[in-house]
Amino acid sequence: MAQKQSVVIIGGGPAGLTAAWEFVKNGSNDYDVTVLEETHEFGGISRTVKHNGNRMDIGGHRFFSKDDRIMDWWKTVLPLQGAPSYDDKKLGRHHDLEPGGPDPEVDDQVMLKRHRVSRIFYGGRFFDYPISLKPATFKAMGFVMTMQAGFSYLKSMFHKLPEDNLENFYINRFGRKLYSMFFEGYTEKLWGRHPSQISADWGAQRVKGLSVLGVLKNAFAKLLPKKRSNKEVETSLIEEFWYPKYGPGQLWETVEHNCVEAGVNVITGAKVVEVCQEQGRISSVVYQIADGQRVRLTADQFISSMPIKDLVNAIDAASTDTEAEPTPVPVPKDMSRIANGLPYRDFVTVGLLVKRLRLKNTTTIPTLGNPPIVPDCWIYVQDPGYTVGRIQVFNNWSPYLVKDVDDTVWIGLEYFCDEGDSFWNMSEEDCIKFAINEMVRMKVISSPSDVLDTHREKVKKAYPAYFDTYSQMDELVEYLDSFGNLYCVGRNGQHHYNNMDHSMATAIEAVDNIKTGKTSKKNVWSVNTEKSYHEKK
User: Listing from the earlier edge strand, what are the strands of the sheet with 271-278?
Assistant: First the structure.
């Protein structure tokens, strides 16, 4: 009988847990799998934070993919709703329900079908996102601004700029006027750098086929009677998505439970501090638990979703371990420099439970609440006069995220910052006071007295950034791939601004390589870069 291969997976986020499940699903018993998770929660930035009966989705996660493997994967974990949800019933809303699917009013293990509404707040006005051809859009922009945007776009069609930075990438697709309105300030707010200093790779990955022509084509197509499938629509413009009843963390908690039931050893509170190499392969990892005790774990294969910077430093840390045999090899200085120069953007989410929003629902979309709340999942605050980047309305993601969904509104305010900067280091009291004042100034709420409850959540390394030493990533990838049994997966594991489905796909590819003995890791790194993964199909 063939001996089981042992696998250590670093990280219990979407990539790590996907990898674990891929090894053990269908009753497979060929692999001895251990997952090491530094925290006591699952899902990484796709976790759900619970606070006084209300739930927060960190960052907002639409469950949609153009990769059928991923859609099927999600549906297997949490089946699609087969009966109307609470808000469907209250609003007389109809979806294509799944025959025999669970009833969200009775069953917790269920995936809801949701309608996405997002708008942009700019210059004290709201604009539809994706842009629509409604009279309200042109009214909000005004005649002069509409003409400026139109002629600016026409100029960009005939005069293309070299795409050596993100600013030129956006101008080529939207024209300078729309870029200055809807991209420049927000991008600088998000990254803390002007778009002219950021690699165009970020735009190529995040907006791909999106352009003025793509937006207009989508707007015209919506006027036609024929209903299009999500596969025919740019991912940035998708208006329907799936969503777990209790937020994204519910799905990953379910996956972790399923993994444990299938024999995976999941260790929480386990921070990986050393990654040991021997003869060009990874031989073991050392993890530290809360009391400072260190535990060494050997394995045949290693899958890492920890930030690349931390991974490289853990390999280097092992080189100073005097107990290791044979003598470990330190990380080459140039590789260490590239890894430690990789930048990240962190963020803070402030949850506010309020009696009502001052914003009026001027759309034709019916919503819950008395008076009815706005239908937005997200409001993007492009206006540079405000520090907040996005506002989530959790009631509209799932009514089950909010304890008293009829009489309160639970919103999440996202602030982009750097770990250790003045905003990050604010006391919770000052941070919440700042956030409330911004909401009053923005006329989202009437006064601080409307706020019933608050919660602050800090998120480290939320966004891998595309500047500084990022331009030398290829060299670092070559070095890490030289360890034949080490696979880097996920957003931070690849320093790649992946969506959740892309992170999962990197894990699926890595597991497939291990199972088939494939030595090239190009397929693992090229998820979300090859045409087959592009948003434009």
Answer: 271-278, 281-288, 294-298
H helix and E strand count, the chain:
18, 19
Helix axes 333-341, 308-318, angle to 10 degrees: 150
> Chain-centre distance of CA 519, in angstroms?
29
Q: What's the CATH code, domain 344-464? A: 3.90.660.10
CA gap 95, 72 in Å, rounded: 19
Residues 266, 42: Cα–Cα separation, whole Å? 11
Domain 344-464 in the same topology as domain 5-44+252-342+467-533:
no
d(CA 107, CA 126): 37
- Containing 494, the helix (H) or strand (E) segment is helix 491-494
What number of CA atoms fall less than 13 Å from residue 75's CA on the CB side?
15
CB of 266 within 8 A of CB of 260?
A: yes
Residue 526: pLDDT over 50: yes
CATH code at 5-44+252-342+467-533: 3.50.50.60
| Cα 214 → chain centroid | 23
Measured distance CA(75)–CA(94) in Å, rounded: 20
Angle between helix axes 333-341 and 473-481 (nearest 10 degrees) is 120
Q: What is the pLDDT of residues 193-228, one digit of tens each?
A: 999 998 888 776 666 555 555 555 555 455 455 554
Rounded distance between C-alpha atoms, residue 535 and residue 520, angstroms: 25
Distance (Å, rounded) from C-alpha 143 to C-alpha 157?
Answer: 21
Residues 6+ apart with CB under 8 A from 489: 15, 16, 19, 303, 304, 305, 503, 506, 507, 510, 524
Model confidence at 532: pLDDT above 70 = no
DSSP-derived secondary structure for 194-235: -GGGS-HHHHHHHTTT-SHHHHHHHHHHHHSSSPPPGGGS-G
Tokens representing residue 141 in the block: 């922009």
Residue 506 CA to residue 434 CA, distance in Å, equals 39
The dihedral through the CA atoms of 299, 301, 306, 309 has a sign that is: positive
Q: Are 211 and 173 in contact (CB under 8 A)?
A: yes
Dihedral sign of CA atoms 32, 36, 42, 47 in order = negative
Q: Report yes or no: 282 and 296 within 8 Å, Cβ to Cβ.
A: no
- Whole-angstrom distance, CA of residue 111 vs CA of residue 467: 37
How do beta strands 240-244 and 125-129 pair? unpaired
Structure tokens at 268: 């929480």
Give the 3-state secondary structure of 346-404.
EEEEEEEEECCCCCCCCCCCCCCCCCCCCCCCEEEECCCCCCCCEEEEHHHHCHHHCCC
pLDDT, tens digit, 9 for 90 and up, residues 231-273: 444 444 457 899 999 999 999 999 999 999 999 999 999 999 9
Domain definitions of the chain by residue range: 5-44+252-342+467-533, 54-113+239-246, 133-236, 344-464
Chain-centroid distance, C-alpha 260: 25
CA distance 515 to 527: 18
pLDDT of residue 120: 86
